[in-house]
């Protein structure tokens, strides 16, 4: 499951996707902002959002495959030690990277945290959803499902929504951890749900996008991905999280398509064939930005391609939008062959193994603004952003911003 987490990966941050940026949302050079990204090298790094220059680095003691959140000057993140199958949860000072508190609860692999009102909500591979006090790291409550939790929770409409490998989406009270309702599907609910206008939108590996009412879990509609429901395979699974914006519902699917659907009926407005597994989308002004062996922007109304990123950006991660910039994980230089590996040079090169690097793109054109100075020989998580004077990340109108699971960032160039 780890290889999927990188991009399939909420309502307070006014700098992220799904709003129509105003003049105030241009990335002014005097705005203090940082972008955070982790990787398989056990490092969590803070970079200047304008230049990509590294501000600080934190040794997380395990694979940082999740996307950190921020709350009142504190960054909340997790790591996972592959050898011991143990999680580490930590709170860091945003400006310095120094440790505020740390927890080693032994949960196993975790999802990216969601934050609200001084609480962090984190799902884990031990089937449980946890609520933590962000001031102290104390575990306030835990909620048990009957399967692994692989997609990050979403907090909206007074509830915490989280999916499970047991096939259910759960609505849980954020204060008590008691279940309000559960919505069953015929497959694992891997991705994070989106919430808008009293409805929850979530995908399942039963090849469907499901929509239920937030208050009651009553089914509103379902949408089948893939060309033929009777012939559906794992390549047609709807594991990406959806995004609701610009009057439409956007979702990527393993059937290689991006779909734009009517929120009231689920009717297809347009469908775009990206020719490979598609990342969760992000919405910026009138564009839908997705990853699929490179990144491209589509016209939100028509699905027409507007721009495509450079061809050498081979690996895929979920796009993260800040003002007029898009942060994406793409391929870096080839990984050199280890000195002690008894493999012919040509055979090693044929593997196409590349390192990962974070890039900043212009949201209007797709042109590269900067590439991070460091690379990781292995997976790199998608990014989160902090801007001075703005509120918590990742919260934006019930739409999960690049948390949970999705298309793999494998570090492979093919």
Taking pLDDT < 50 over at least 5 consecutive residues as the criterion, the unreliable ranges are: 1-24, 229-236, 395-414
Number of strands: 32
| Coarse morphology | globular
Main sheet: strands, sense, barrel: 4 strands, antiparallel
Helix proportion of residues, in percent? Answer: under 10%
**Major sheet: order of its strands?**
3-2-1-32
Taking the alpha carbons of the first and last residues, their distance comes to 20 Å
The SS-based structural class is mainly beta
Describe this structure in words.
The protein has 414 residues and is mainly beta. Helices cover 1% and strands 41% of the residues. The chain has one helix and 32 strands. The strands form eight sheets. It has a four-stranded antiparallel sheet, with no helix packed on it. The protein is globular. The two termini are 20 Å apart. The model is unreliable at 1-24, 229-236 and 395-414 (pLDDT under 50).
């Amino acid at each position: 499951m780890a290889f999927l987490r990188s991009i399939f990966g909420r309502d307070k941050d006014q700098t992220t996707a799904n709003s129509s940026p105003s003049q105030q949302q241009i990335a002014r050079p005097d705005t203090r902002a940082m972008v955070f990204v982790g990787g398989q090298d056990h490092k969590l790094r803070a970079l200047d959002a304008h230049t990509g220059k590294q501000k600080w680095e934190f040794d997380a003691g395990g694979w940082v495959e999740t996307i950190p959140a921020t709350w009142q000057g504190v960054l909340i993140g997790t790591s996972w030690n592959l050898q011991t199958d143990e999680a580490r949860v930590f709170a860091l000072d945003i400006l310095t990277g120094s440790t505020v508190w740390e927890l080693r609860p032994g949960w196993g692999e975790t999802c990216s945290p969601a934050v609200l009102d001084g609480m962090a909500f984190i799902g884990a591979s031990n089937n449980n959803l946890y609520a933590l006090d962000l001031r102290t790291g104390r575990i306030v409550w835990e909620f048990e499902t009957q399967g692994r939790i692989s997609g990050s929770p979403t907090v909206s409409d007074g509830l915490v929504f989280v999916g499970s490998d047991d096939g259910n989406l759960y609505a849980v009270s954020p204060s008590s951890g008691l279940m309000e309702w559960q919505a069953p599907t015929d497959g694992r609910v891997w991705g994070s749900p989106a919430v808008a206008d009293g409805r929850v939108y979530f995908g399942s590996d039963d090849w469907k996008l499901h929509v239920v009412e937030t208050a009651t879990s009553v089914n509103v509609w379902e949408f089948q991905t893939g060309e033929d429901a009777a012939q559906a395979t794992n390549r047609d699974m709807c594991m990406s999280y959806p995004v609701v914006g610009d009057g439409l519902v956007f979702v990527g699917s393993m059937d290689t398509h991006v779909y734009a659907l009517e929120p009231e009926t689920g009717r297809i407005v347009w469908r775009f064939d990206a020719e490979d597994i598609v990342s969760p989308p992000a919405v910026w002004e009138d564009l839908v930005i997705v990853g699929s062996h490179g990144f491209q922007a589509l016209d939100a109304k028509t699905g027409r391609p507007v721009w495509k990123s450079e061809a050498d950006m081979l690996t895929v991660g979920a796009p993260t939008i800040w003002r007029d910039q898009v942060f994406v994980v793409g391929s870096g230089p080839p990984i050199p062959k280890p000195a002690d590996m008894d493999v012919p040079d040509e055979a090693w090169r044929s593997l196409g193994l590349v390192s990962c690097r974070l890039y900043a793109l212009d949201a209007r054109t797709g042109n590269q603004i900067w590439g991070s100075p460091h690379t990781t020989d292995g997976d790199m998580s998608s990014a989160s952003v902090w801007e001075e004077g703005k509120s918590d990340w990742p919260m934006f109108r019930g739409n999960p911003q690049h948390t949970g699971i999705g298309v793999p960032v494998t570090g492979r160039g093919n």
